[in-house]
């Protein structure tokens, strides 16, 4: 009976195709000798370490070598059950939560290999072959060799809320930190070095891989600020995921890029808040949003990659389970209409076969929730909602700390008895889900938004209305300016150098070497299938009017204008600002900086101009948006402040402009500017487009880094130096 395998190799493991004889134990060629499977008194089975180059981290895993090896590392051949004995979620376990949304297809479980083995497997993935007349041949072990059994990581937890834990890590208090057995191959310590003590055979490293190892520590910020560490980890994850997806599309494979990125980060020990805890997680703020369950895992907010209940098996000095975090993602019948109250359904009750249903049992995660009712400990709550920008995606919102106030059993629509837990939100926390639902009502009915000075500041020029809001004071609006949506150049476009477009018919396709626009961008299309910018470049080339492809080409993103619901609002101390009603995903296009291009003479005559955009060097965070290429054997394309070269273009939005003129400065920004070309070929005067640097929750002010005052060789006493009021922990004090 074929079942999907949970086998997930780590990036450093080697795997070869295995075709064992039916009458003998499986044997593998080894370049370094023979390893002993056991040390019993009977002649041991010969077990030889796998050898050969495992496909690269971007390569397809759907190959016979992986499928054959998965039979001995992932499942029980007789029953098809995973080693951990996980429980399926209500959807039948066919689709992994938080699937790759860029693909837009809702692929089923990741890296699925078919079960082909016959021997019964034990929990560690080693075939359990007993001695018999037809058993394995006797062999004398080579005593100098050590057993090297490859570690297997399963990132698809099958909703296993209480997977077995093992390990001997200790917390600051001296208590042992337990970790998932399926992550036992990784070093879970606070260090960033690779774990070399677990006996895992390492893949021969290329020079690029060695460079990755040498630079792993450099990926982490020198600051001890937990918030900065969490943000860097999430940026790294997103950069890896987008790059994986880009390469998978080029190779015409459909894999879970989020799980690939997560596996690389776990293998490189790039994670935060190791060890389970009750209460708030350092570096994670109420209202933070996520698009993949793996993001919750790597920052230590919620450990199971699929299970809805995270818990500890020890409470203080007592051996008693206690729940620490739950994810209400709509898999079960959860009532979350009230923003401060959540009725959460327990886990279990539905097996792999959707026709086999049974009552939920008071065990594992359900038992932990019941114990938390009596312990009265706080529980982190993450709520999942449909992603308004992706039909198959979800957005996960961290809604803060709750407590369980009561529990009961009731019969569900499917006919099983289900545990119900009523949780109440702790007072005094910032709003999160309440803001989400409020913004969704405004999107559906803009008239519901209060304190509106003008329903559409753009007067219909933008694709969506731009509200003007003031709920701070009595000011009636910003100073007068002409709202335009296209840059006004010094000379007509027809007199500028023409842009050399592509000759693709219909649309540009990933991996098409004949596409001129792809070649302009280094060989790859710069955007994912859902329109996310893959990485920051010196210049992004979109298809334009000179291209033969249609307007629906995926390489036409920023030129199509604003696609999110924006509002200009009055801030408390920084004039007018810009924010969105929609959640904005990292890499999403936001808006263009529009105004009139001015020359140096005009700049000097105007003197002080608060609406002048220059391509001065931004902060380090913006320059390092492409975190992690070293982790996958690629050369870093980040630009340092020393090598940054500004462009000659200068845009003034004092008299004419668009919403971008209201974006304030921050030393810890959530957007960045990217030069984009599509309608002319003079690279010194590109379009300045803004993209999301990280996931941005609704009603969060949109900011970018105006640039360091030192980037133009000007001191703090310069006329352009201004006091910074961004309030971030990394504030430089001044900006240009």
TrEMBL record:
One Gene Ontology CC term in the entry: chromosome
Gene3D superfamilies associated with the record: SET domain, SRA-YDG
Any GO MF annotation of the entry: double-stranded DNA binding
Compartment(s): Chromosome; Nucleus
Domain Post-SET residues, every copy: 720-736
SUPFAM superfamilies with a match to the protein in the record: PUA domain-like, SET domain
Source organism, top-level taxon: Eukaryota
SET domain mapped to chain residues: 564-707
Residue span, YDG domain: 279-425
Alphabetized UniProt keyword annotations: Chromatin regulator, Chromosome, Methyltransferase, Nucleus, S-adenosyl-L-methionine, Transferase
Pfam (any one): SAD_SRA
Acidic residues bias locations: 155-164
Any one of the GO BP annotations: methylation
All residue ranges annotated as the Pre-SET domain in the record: 500-561
Spans annotated as Disordered: 76-224
Protein name per UniProt: Histone-lysine N-methyltransferase
Species classification: Eukaryota, Viridiplantae, Streptophyta, Embryophyta, Tracheophyta
